[in-house]
Structures are given as structure tokens and as C-alpha cells.
Specification:
Length: 266
Amino acid sequence: MRRLITIPLLLLVLATYGQAQEDNSEKNSSNVSKNDFEWKTHKFFFRLGFSTARGDYSSTEPRDDAGFADVGRNIEFGYEVRINENFGIMMRYSNMRHGIEEGEYANEINNQLIAATNMTDFSSRASFDNYRFNNFLVSPRLYNRIGKNSYFLITPTIGFSSMVIGQLQVTSFNDQFTIVAVQEETNAEQAFMYGIAGGFSFRTSKFISINLFAEYLEAEFDNIFASATATATVASLGASNRTSSTAIYDQKVQMLNFGIEIGYNF
């Protein structure tokens, strides 16, 4: 009799234990699903990073299209709408700035003065107020899931860019002369910009995502009008002479940006 009672009790305990295990499994599965990278339709985001000049834009060679551009910074903000888990469209504004290789530019001016005057004792220094870009860009974004909370991203980009070339001042001197040349700030016309980016996206919470990205961008600005004045002073006489000039030129701009994007998803 005791054995007969014990058997159904054991079966009842085992059945109850099995049900509890099943419930826990479903609960854990539910939690995994809730914690999973569930894509959301809307996202506002902010980007911060650094920008490196490439190609002619960064060249320090003695030619007209050499930009002498140095490493700069990039700030962006925008909005993205997700069509589905694997595709979204991003609209953004970016502001980028690059300085110039002031030492390299001063050396180039020295070389030009030496060639023009046959004097070898010139010393020059340059001061530049940045290349500045305002970009309005549209980017379809392709998502490929690589983990529970992570994606690999491919982002082609098209849009428009406006460039401001800051004031440039060069001071050159030797025992006989002091020459101060100033190129005024110049606004370039808008240019078509295009590029492509790759990166990784990570969901850190229900609403916050962090993206790491690298992006190549290119634009060509035509018919940039620049004006400059130069004042030369003869040290022994204290007399000075002033000249002015203008030029129209084209500038191809290439850059490679690296940064972090923080997004609010809802």
C-alpha cells in the first residue's frame, strides 16, 4: 500500500517539476526575445568623430590643386526611418572643419620667394582659419544582423555640400623685406557630394544604440573665386608697396571620416 501511494506521489512531483522547468524555459525564451535587438521605426542620432583629408585636397605638392588640408573634426545630427529590419533611410546634416599643414604651406611660400628673388634667407609662417563644410546628405542604410544585439552596416550617401575657405595669412621676412599676404575668406558654390560608409551597430538598451563607422566622402567645387592682397615693406627704407590679385580655381575634396553615432530609437 505504501508503495502504491508513493508511486503516484513521485509521478505527481515529477510532472510538477517538469511543468516548472517548461515554464522557466518559456520565461527565459520570452526574456531573450524581449532583450533581443528589436528594430524600431524611428531614430534621432548624433555623430562625433575626426575627418582626414585625402587626395589632392591633402596634397602638399607644389601645384594649383594642392589643398594642404590637415586632420579635422566632424559633427552630425539627423533622423533615420527604418522600413524593415534590413533597410532604413537616413537624413542628416554634418559640419566638418579642416585646418591646413601650416608648416608645409610656409615652406612652399619660401620656395616660391627664393625662386622669384634668388634670396635664400627667407623665413615664413602661415595662419589659416579652417576649411569649413556644411553638408545635407541622404543615405539609404543596409543592415545585416551579426549577433543578438548587433548589425553590420553599409551606407551609401548622396547630397549637397557648401565649402567656406577661411582667411589665410602668410608672413615672410628676411633682413631686407617683410611681406604680408592675406587671402580673404571665400565661399565656394554648392557641390554634389557622394560617398559610402561601413560600420557596426550595437543596441545597448531598449532605446539606445551605438554605431561605430568609417565613411568616405567626395565632392568637386568648381570656379572658386579667391582674392588676395600682399604688402611688402623694405626694412632699410620703411617704404612699402601693396598689390592685389584674384584667381579662379577648382578644388576636388576627398575625406575619410571615423566616428561614433549615438541614437535614440523609438
